[in-house]
């Protein structure tokens, strides 16, 4: 079975880059990415490649090569499904906000809508691939919907595969072009091999893992849970370092050189953000409770609890160090995205930390190289202030176009995202614009402590007991 036409439902952070790389590497396969969001599709079709809806280093070049050749972005969902022999489902699966499982379970309404669209529109044999991150056993629900359609029309048949995505934002293209592994779960060997043949255009055979459906679905949740758990673990140690005089970077190096532990993902910081870690762990927690494993659920839930605590802890220590009040004080926030090299702010630590500081009455001047102010307003649930009303005691925020503008008159700077531009700032010059005594709270430990101190700033660095 050779795949000739791929349809991907969902032109988001995963669907767009993933399909762009498949199209780039497999010029003989027609790849069409469809979405119900017209504005998003228009942005993917923008002649100006700097205006694609997702910012990822290298994405513009990949899209530039494939678009108009064998890569298409469209809102014609049903027509594209009808002509495809493989349909990826890459739609959003956020945490449910109400009803059964609210706050933990995944909201599967968009995935189910896709299954029903495929059931209605597909022709011939169609391989349906779960690309979204899903609770284990979702494939059973998708199969049930598709089988009902098959009974109505015997000309059609379906196979369901699980092919979770492991890319990280900011390095999506690198991760897609040279993945650690590609995971394919399924029951039908021919369909598994058809998808494996797509990836084998550029991925070594040894890196293409085949499992059963449920192992594949569960591996994705488990991978994210393990990664997030490492961050909560190192952040818990960071707090202990601050209390004892140890330095978390030294501890991370010391433990990371043990080959069983490994050096990656041991950076202490303001806690993990991003659209998936929290959502996927809460989903795992929900599943554990559902399957009667409350102790396992509690274990994983503590990873999220530690993360939330770390964010509140940082906001609180800023208040404490600034003489117990930040009301009316100007604070410069460097970085709003959940990590560097992305414009994504979903679950960004900055949201909770800025929220706490606004609650305390601070006047925030927020700088970020990529995040739009309209996004900040949505995240902070508050419009930017035209002019700071210092005496009202109510917190407000404003966008700063430059780091210089952000620090002018500020009592403190908080570095919340590890953007490269914050690594080698002229702290002597910046300190000169601040009100004294002035502080730097470096939650990402990117600034050079010696330079910061020489500039006359008092420094707090995450996990640094010496400061
Ligand atoms: N963002 C990331 O870095 C990663 C995300 N994932 C998973 O991939 C999935 C997708 O995530 P993102 O791409 O970030 O989401 P996203 O929210 O950026 O994109 C999803 C897209 O699906 C579209 N959509 C929803 N229902 C539709 C329907 N019925 N028909 C057509 N289009 C529809 C939406 O309009 C939206 O554009 C999620 O399950 C997520 O957990 C997995 C790995 C990495
Ligand atoms: O399922 C997903 O959505 C993806 O989630 C993460 O990718 P992503 O959230 O894009 O970014 P990460 O690099 O994992 O960073 C997540 C958060 O952890 C933080 N982090 C990461 C590493 C570290 O050592 N310390 C740390 O605080 C980052 O700053 C960021 O806020 C995983 O790394 C991907 O494998 C997975 O596919």
UniProtKB/TrEMBL annotation:
This is UDP-glucose 6-dehydrogenase. InterPro entries: 6-PGluconate_DH-like_C_sf, NAD(P)-bd_dom_sf, UDP-Glc/GDP-Man, UDP-Glc/GDP-Man_DH_C, UDP-Glc/GDP-Man_DH_C_sf, UDP-Glc/GDP-Man_DH_dimer, UDP-Glc/GDP-Man_DH_N, UDPglc_DH_euk. Belongs to the UDP-glucose/GDP-mannose dehydrogenase family. The keyword Transferase does not apply. The keyword Oxidoreductase applies. Its EC number is 1.1.1.22. The gene is Ugd. It comes from Parasynechococcus marenigrum (strain WH8102). NAD(+) binds at residues 10-15, 35, 40, 91-95, 132-133, 169, 276-279, 346.
């Amino acid at each position: 079975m050779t795949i000739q036409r791929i349809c991907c439902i969902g032109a988001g952070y995963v669907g767009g880059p993933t399909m762009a790389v498949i199209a780039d590497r497999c010029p003989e396969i027609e790849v069409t990415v469809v979405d119900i969001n017209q504005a998003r599709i228009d942005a993917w079709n923008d002649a100006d490649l700097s205006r694609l809806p997702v910012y990822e280093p290298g994405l513009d070049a990949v899209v530039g090569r494939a678009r108009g050749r064998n890569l298409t972005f469209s809102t014609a969902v049903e027509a594209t499904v009808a002509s495809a022999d493989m349909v990826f489902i890459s739609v959003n699966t956020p945490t449910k906000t109400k009803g059964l499982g609210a706050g933990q379970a995944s909201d599967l309404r968009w995935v189910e809508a896709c299954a029903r669209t495929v059931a209605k529109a597909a022709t011939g044999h169609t391989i349906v691939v779960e690309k979204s991150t899903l609770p284990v056993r979702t494939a059973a629900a998708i199969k049930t919907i598709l089988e009902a359609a098959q009974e109505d029309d015997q000309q059609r048949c379906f196979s369901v595969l699980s092919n979770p995505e492991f890319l990280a934002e900011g390095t999506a293209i690198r991760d897609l072009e040279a993945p650690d592994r590609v995971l394919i779960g399924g029951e039908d060997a021919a369909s598994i091999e058809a998808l494996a043949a797509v990836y084998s255009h550029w991925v070594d055979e040894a890196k293409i893992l085949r499992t059963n459906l449920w192992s594949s679905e569960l591996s994705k949740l488990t991978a994210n849970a393990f990664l997030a758990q490492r961050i909560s673990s190192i952040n818990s140690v960071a707090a202990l370092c601050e209390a004892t005089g140890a330095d978390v970077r030294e501890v991370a190096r010391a433990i990371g050189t043990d080959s069983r532990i490994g050096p990656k993902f041991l950076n202490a910081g303001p806690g993990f953000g991003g659209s998936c870690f929290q959502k996927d762990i809460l989903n795992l927690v929900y599943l554990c409770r559902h399957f009667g494993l409350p102790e396992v659920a509690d274990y994983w839930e503590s990873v999220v609890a530690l993360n939330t605590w770390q964010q509140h802890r940082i906001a609180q220590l800023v208040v404490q160090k600034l003489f117990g009040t930040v009301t009316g004080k100007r604070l410069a926030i460097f970085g709003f995205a959940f990590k560097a090299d992305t414009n994504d702010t979903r679950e960004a630590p900055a949201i909770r930390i800025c929220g706490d500081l606004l609650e305390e009455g601070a006047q925030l001047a927020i700088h970020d190289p990529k995040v739009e102010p309209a996004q900040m307003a949505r995240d902070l649930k508050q419009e930017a202030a035209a002019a700071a009303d210092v005496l009202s005691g109510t917190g407000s925020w404003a966008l700063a176009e430059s780091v210089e503008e952000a620090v002018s008159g500020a009592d403190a700077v908080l570095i919340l995202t590890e953007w490269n531009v914050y690594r080698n700032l002229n702290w002597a010059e910046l300190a000169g614009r601040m009100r004294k005594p002035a502080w730097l709270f470096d939650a990402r430990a990117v600034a050079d402590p010696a330079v910061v101190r020489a500039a006359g700033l008092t420094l707090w660095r995450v996990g640094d007991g010496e400061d």
